[in-house]
Amino acid sequence: MASEKVETVIAGNYVEMEREEGDDGSKSTNQMSKLSKIFWHGGSVYDAWFSCASNQVAQVLLTLPYSFSQLGMVSGIIFQLFYGLMGSWTAYLISILYVEYRTRKEREKVDFRNHVIQWFEVLDGLLGKHWRNIGLFFNCTFLLFGSVIQLIACASNIYYINDNLDKRTWTYIFGACCATTVFIPSFHNYRIWSFLGLMMTTYTAWYLTIASLIHGQVEGVKHSGPTKLVLYFTGATNILYTFGGHAVTVEIMHAMWKPQKFKLIYLIATLYVLTLTLPSASAVYWAFGDLLLTHANAFALLPRTGFRDTAIILMLIHQFITFGFACTPLYFVWEKFIGVHDTKSVLKRALARLPVVIPIWFLAIIFPFFGPINSTVGSLLVSFTVYIIPALAHMVTFSSPAARENAVERPPSFLGGWAGLYSMNMFVVVWVLVVGFGFGGWASMLNFVQQVNTFGLFTKCYQCPPHKA
After folding, report:
1. What's the whole-model pTM score?
2. d(CA 49, CA 253)
3. Peptide bond preceding 466: is omega within 30 degrees of 0, i.e. cis?
4. Which one, of 86, 91, 12, 52, lies nearest residue 390 by Cα?
5. Transmembrane ranges (predicted)?
6. 15 — phi, psi (to 5°)?
């Protein structure tokens, strides 16, 4: 009979959720179990780090030079550093709320072994159904459009290798390819994919940097940004979106053997990501300047070489992985809604998940605006999902003296205790509400409407150069 391994976690006083499979003494089963752990079944601190770092950049790497052309070099660098730290802070808050929720529930003998905890459930358990509904709406809508953006990016990238098909046709093809993510059960099973995804992003970032420096500045290059408030706040909001990839933080934490170790993972992942985004965005903007204002995808301006085509292919694979990252929480929500979340049949769950992919596919065909859609999603959805709601939820959860006294995780002393923590949270809420959602929403919507008026909905080939026979 297979035995269960249950380990008590001291910091949160909750138990691990995963069963040790393959303990029947069979040599072949044990060998399969070892292979599974190496390539498939991850839950370590390193797995979580790869997941966070890999999921954070993805296709945004290709639009950051576009943001620099809107912001200017100095503002582009400052906003990356600023939003990188702010995103790490709210990821930390989410991790604290997850630990608090899970500890309270397991003290009540709730067993999560066949259940993946999600952000809306944390809000429900700590603050009630109204918070749950708000969190569910913003999180699901953000992840829906995050998945849409990955499909748009796939079509935009592959077009620069093969322009015999228009971008809309490529969207049809990659929509079908990305639908295969329904077969990946959970974030435990992204171990090898997360590792490969980050290696692919690292290659692409340094390709962009080196290729731009070798190419040099185009003749008559201009660096006139910032020139308009609309463009300025659109670019800033795209960077807000860049460091707002932790809409899947709770699911990544839940996949860890010891989730209480997550606290600094997102910050360390962000620091690594900055070593990729700052050099690449700066170098591409230095080389091409204002040309990026009409070329949201950095690949569009670099000459075709074997290195460029390799970078494109690697980014396509990575976008498939990131699509899975964004869609998996949606799969979980849908499974819970139709009552198949606890089934062990991978095939049954995969078939149940397919309806989630259809609206994503359809929206990618309607709004193929690579670049502008990032800013729109950032201002209207990421601002609340990733920044405002976690900060407010943390303040409300620990508003009473009893809650602060009995908190599982207390604020670090260097923050100034609870007063310092509340001050940080209030700054995040006010800044993102005014600058991210307010000015960013205004600018992003104006820019998005301009794209619709210029190119139209269902456009076959957004920002495509003239086709060469």
Report:
1. 0.86
2. 10
3. no
4. 91
5. 77-99, 136-158, 170-188, 195-218, 230-252, 264-288, 311-334, 354-371, 377-398, 419-443
6. -105, 155
